[in-house]
Amino acid sequence: MGSALSNAPVSLSTLTTMQVGGVPSRIISCGNTQQLYDAAIELWSSDEQFHVLAGGSNTVFAEDLEGLTILHVTNRGVEIVSEDAQFVTVQVQAGHSWDEFVAWAVTNDYAGIEAMSGIPGSVGATPVQNVGGYGQEVSDVITQVEFLEKGSDESVIRPASYFEFSYRDSALKHGLEGLVGWVEFRLQKLAGMSVPMKSGQITEHLGAEYGSALPLEQVRKTVLELRASKGMVISETDPDSVGCGSFFTNPVISVEKSLEFPEEMQRWRMPNEDQVKISAGWLIENAGFPKGYSIPGSKAAISNKHALAITNRGGASSAEILELARLIQERVAARWGINLIPEPNLVGF
Q1: 343 an active-site residue?
Q2: Which fold has domain 4-73?
Q3: The CATH classification of domain 78-229, taken from the options 3.40.50.10470, 3.20.20.80, 3.40.50.720, 3.30.465.10
Q4: Which of 65, 82, 265, 323 has its CA 20 to 30 A from that of 278?
Q5: Candidates 114, 137, 146, 343; catalytic one
Q6: CA 106 to CA 112: how far, in whole Å?
Q7: 168 is catalytic
Q8: Catalytic site residue from 76, 168, 186, 220
Q9: Lowest mean pLDDT among 66-80, 112-126, 224-238
Q10: Could you say which of 97, 199, 241, 246 is catalytic?
Q11: Taking the model in full, what pTM does it have?
């Protein structure tokens, strides 16, 4: 199969940022795309249950993982495939760190992903939920993806439209099964400036007008500061960063329905003028969950910095994480009539 099998699988709490999860039956380390594809084809043919894991920042594993195989994706690399005076097209391997790629782009004056600085995880995971932040999302810049579809023995290159991207969503979350080998991005050359900023938080923080182009390095620095202030940048010195970042997506609702909520609730405009995105953090806090809340006796807690993040305070079980998440969902639904959707993958529950 051309891949290295772990003879002694480790607890997935050591491979995930939430730091919970049991020991799988085995871990297959895939250092290049072909190893990944070969392993997946073999596992599909044997109907063996498996899960693909790279950065481990967007997955919560159960404790009982008997029978589960982990494909640990570690392929890395960024390659420029074409460029002209205005654009550069790059292919990035699935196992490459997303934030390292963003840092590389900013250093080289390539614009289009700077506002997504500090997001943990791997490049290969970004198309799955159309990762985004501060007014940008990867579907803005993805051109194509090398993809091995379940049931196929050969990978194909699919255009971005194949994945039906929408807000924090894609066909990969709704029945399209397969593996990402690499992702191709088209970034802009704007002489060290960003694309127009569509985040009021960034422009207000920098005293600029909404829609302004700003220096790339300044945007990245600002985003990292904003995310760190919310415990959203992984740091060994910050216990609020032991989690998956935002545990729930910000709901998108009709403008009409949004009028039912108090004016002070944060909301953001969407490309579809009939819809707005509203603050899940506000809904949570105003359903009776202050920052730092935990169920008595539990080691799972809402972040002290941001109500949208669930954190592991040290030694929490995956059951405790899910117990808190479900309680939040129940109370928000009862108070506001909104069903919060978890952002991380929940495996083994």
Answers
A1: yes
A2: 3.30.43
A3: 3.30.465.10
A4: 323
A5: 343
A6: 9
A7: yes
A8: 168
A9: 224-238
A10: 246
A11: 0.88
